[in-house]
Amino acid sequence: IFFRPPFLSTMNSMWPFILVMMAGILTATYMGLSTRAPPRIIVVGGGLAGLSAAHTVLQNGGRVVLVDKEDKLGGNSMKASSGINSAGSYVQQDLQIEDSAAAFAVDTMLSGTDQSDTVSDLVSVLSKDSASALDWLGHHFGVDLSVVSRLGGHSHART
């Protein structure tokens, strides 16, 4: 189910607050589920992350209500022009591009100003899981991420 509540388009300044509230509701709903009933989940946002979350819930037998402020799905992902960066993906392997999660992590940390342990831990997860995430998108949804290039801040050609 997808719907666009009319009031969301006029509440752009409230959108971050709404997202936080919905995330809290989603977490509380999921944590309180009975093992007998299929999960009923509300996903806020129809971009790549929201659609991936909704798909994962459906794959696991759940029911989803997808809410987005726009009248079509895709979010910022549909406007992105430089792909999704990943190290060690099937695309790089097919093109014989040697890359690593460690190199991706270094590139990512160098591109930002916050060098805290928290950010470093998040970058580590991002870097290590990037290839499997890109492979999942390519194999399950047929997303064409075959074009690679070495963009600013990257030491290797990535999608």
Give your account of this protein's structure:
With 159 residues, the protein is mainly alpha-helical. Helices cover 43% and strands 8% of the residues.
Tally the beta strands. 3
- Given the helix and strand composition, which structural class is it? mainly alpha
Query: What is the residue-mean pLDDT, rounded to a whole number?
Result: 79
Number of helices: 5
Task: Summarize the model shown.
The protein has 159 residues and is mostly helical.
Q: What are the SSEs and their pairings?
A:
Elements: E1 2-3, H1 15-31, E2 40-44, H2 48-59, E3 63-67, H3 90-94, H4 101-110, H5 117-141
Parallel strand pairs: 1-3, 2-3
Helix pairs in contact: 4-5
